[in-house]
């Protein structure tokens, strides 16, 4: 009852009120407006209703205002709340030790795949294997066993007769069938070794046979080059020992009409092992331009690297790297940086799935068998020294930068909303006066 009396006195101080309350706390005689003061009394009521309504909204409505993302406090709370954090991640402050750990991380290099082949034991590219097609030419003196017309030479003649056998296919077991020579196992032989083997088989059937063997279709000594090249193809290898950039060039090279070679990834598959490197890295590091081996598969992938920016920045955006390397400082500046009126420069976050090796070195637990894990790196831009660290922190593909909202942002949003709602009433009151 006292509450209603207080509210009545607050809203209608100049009105004559007669309050009669029953046991049900009923206000019976309401304000009797005087003819002369009616307009002023209603104006005062409107102002006080607006004041009380604004107070109630201030107490209960701030949390319902829209936001672009969480504050620093909310991110820290979510990291320790198992109900809100479905992924077990940690928040790591950007510091010099972290920069050194990240800089020491080395991706799988092509040179590691070539470790078992030294210069003293280079792979051969002239052996025969299943699937190859061979051309065998036999030169005979005197009686021509392979002459199509059964021609024979006179005794003592030095004239030789050349006969080309039909193309011989090496079957899946590595065998070929030579007329008058029978079946020969040729897998692993060189062309010279096979020529000697055929000559030995024909020695007692043909007069002074001489044999030449040439690989017409070389399946065994070849690599497959495909993906973002102009001419995807099977590239035969030669004893010259082609390197990875050689076979890419023989396949027409990368399609530069799409993008620069910073956005191309070379994926090499060898003996069920896979390694990836940027094409630019192979071009700049001769040690990664390794010698090709028969059976290698080289895929050129056009993969434009990008990062995303959310939160209290000039714009929410997804940007491509467009350069070989990109630092965190450069990435933040591309999005316009933190907004003074909204952002909390103490809380600049970078979300990333980091390798398990780095997470272990940072003391972050990793699930058994996992190769990567989630982590959040925090940068405090109120500390001037961290601007130097941001210049050394290298961005990676699919990184997410989040600029947290300031805690006071809700109040300013609410104040702006109230101003928008109250301004028409204040304007109307001044017009009445």
TrEMBL record:
> Where do the SLBB domain residues begin and end?
307-403
Q: Which UniProt keywords apply?
A: Cell outer membrane, Ion transport, Lipoprotein, Membrane, Palmitate, Polysaccharide transport, Porin, Signal, Sugar transport, Transmembrane, Transmembrane beta strand, Transport
Q: Does the keyword Transport apply?
A: yes
Molecular function (GO) terms for this protein are: polysaccharide transmembrane transporter activity; porin activity
Q: How is this protein named in the record? A: Sugar transporter
Of which family is this protein a member?
Belongs to the BexD/CtrA/VexA family.
Q: How does it sit in the membrane?
A: Multi-pass membrane protein
Annotated Polysaccharide export protein N-terminal domain ranges read 122-215
Q: Where in the cell is it found?
A: Cell outer membrane
The record's Gene Ontology cellular component field reads: cell outer membrane; pore complex
Q: Which Pfam families did the record assign?
A: Poly_export, SLBB_2
Q: Name one GO biological process term.
A: monoatomic ion transport
């Amino acid at each position: 009852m006292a509450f209603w009396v207080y509210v009545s006195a607050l809203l209608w101080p100049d009105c004559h009120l007669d309050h009669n309350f029953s046991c049900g706390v009923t206000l019976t005689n309401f304000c009797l407006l005087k003819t002369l003061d009616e307009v002023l009394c209603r104006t005062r009521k409107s102002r006080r209703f607006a004041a009380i309504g604004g107070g109630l909204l201030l107490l209960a409505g701030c949390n319902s205002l829209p936001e672009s993302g969480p504050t620093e406090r909310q991110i820290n709370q979510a990291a320790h709340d198992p109900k809100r954090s479905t992924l077990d991640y940690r928040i790591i402050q950007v510091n010099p030790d972290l920069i050194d750990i990240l800089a020491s991380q080395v991706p799988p290099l092509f040179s590691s795949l070539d470790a078992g082949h030294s210069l003293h034991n280079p792979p051969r590219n002239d052996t025969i294997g299943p699937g190859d097609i061979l051309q065998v030419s036999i030169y005979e003196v005197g009686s021509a066993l392979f002459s199509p017309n059964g021609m024979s030479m006179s005794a003592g003649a030095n004239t030789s007769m050349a006969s080309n056998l039909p193309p011989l296919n090496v079957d899946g077991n590595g065998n070929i069938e030579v007329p008058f020579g029978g079946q020969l196992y040729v897998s692993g032989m060189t062309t010279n070794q096979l020529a000697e083997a055929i000559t030995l088989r024909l020695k007692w059937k043909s007069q002074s046979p001489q044999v030449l063997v040439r690989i017409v279709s070389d399946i065994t000594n070849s690599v497959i080059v495909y993906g973002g090249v102009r001419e995807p193809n099977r590239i035969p290898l030669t004893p010259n020992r082609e390197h990875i950039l050689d076979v890419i060039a023989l396949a027409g090279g990368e399609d530069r009409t799409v993008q620069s070679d910073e956005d191309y990834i070379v994926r090499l598959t060898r003996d069920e092992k896979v390694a990836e490197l940027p094409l630019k890295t192979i071009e700049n590091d001769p040690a990664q331009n390794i010698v090709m081996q028969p059976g290698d598969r080289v895929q050129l992938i056009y993969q434009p690297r990008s990062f995303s920016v959310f939160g209290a920045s000039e714009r929410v955006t997804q940007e491509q790297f467009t350069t070989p390397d990109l630092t965190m400082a450069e990435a933040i500046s591309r999005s316009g940086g933190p907004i003074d009126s909204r952002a909390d420069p103490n809380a600049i976050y970078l979300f990333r799935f980091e390798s398990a090796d780095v997470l272990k070195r940072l003391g972050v637990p990793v699930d058994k068998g996992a190769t990567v894990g989630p982590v959040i790196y925090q940068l405090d831009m109120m500390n001037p020294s961290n601007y130097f660290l941001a210049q050394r922190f290298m961005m990676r593909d699919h990184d997410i930068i989040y600029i947290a909202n300031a805690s006071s942002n809700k109040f300013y949003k609410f104040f702006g909303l109230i101003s928008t709602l109250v301004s028409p009433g204040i304007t109307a009151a001044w017009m009445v006066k």
